[in-house]
User: What shape does this take?
Amino acid sequence: KNEVEQSPQNLTAQEGEFITINCSYSVGISALHWLQQHPGGGIVSLFMLSSGKKKHGRLIATINIQEKHSSLHITASHPRDSAVYICAVIPSDKLIFGTGTRLQVFP
Amino acid sequence: GAVVSQHPSRVICKSGTSVKIECRSLDFQATTMFWYRQFPKQSLMLMATSNEGSKATYEQGVEKDKFLINHASLTLSTLTVTSAHPEDSSFYICSALPGTYEQYFGPGTRLTVT
Assistant: This one.
């Protein structure tokens, strides 16, 4: 079993839909990253959080340390949100990555 | 925000040759940089941790003589793939750690070995 599990693995949505991607982990962590990887390969760090909730534009990330669970929400999804979203946890100074969620948003 | 660059973004080389990939932190100093590789539709795999002024720490299964890492300054780390083979074709990504937990990722280098 992977130390970081994401669900769903693949997700399709119509433009405007509310999207939720889940991440569960089994190790103790100091923080968690949500990353976005576009088809070209470049990775952008969306959030790093260790408790509570963060919001940036249409993106919201939450984490529950006790339950070892985090969610990434996208409100009013748009085709440009199509990408792979990766959850990565930080138990020490190295990241442990989830397998990613491939999101496609259709107009 | 913090910016990490990689050069080149794409490289094609012949089997048996060596390729050097550079990773630079443009607006901050990074005592630690990480090198990852990623196969198509798979997650990132950590290859090694590069610390400025000291030898890199390689993950299990990564050949240190094949993937030479040099972290000569606080803003530059290089990965050299020596005697490249087609199976080394992959997407290589670096990240830089400016001293906190947050890593900043480079845009990646796509290596194709023919």
User: Anything to note?
Assistant: The first strand of chain B starts at residue 4 and ends at 7. The mean pLDDT of chain B is 91. Residues 38 and 44 of chain B are 5 Å apart (CA to CA).
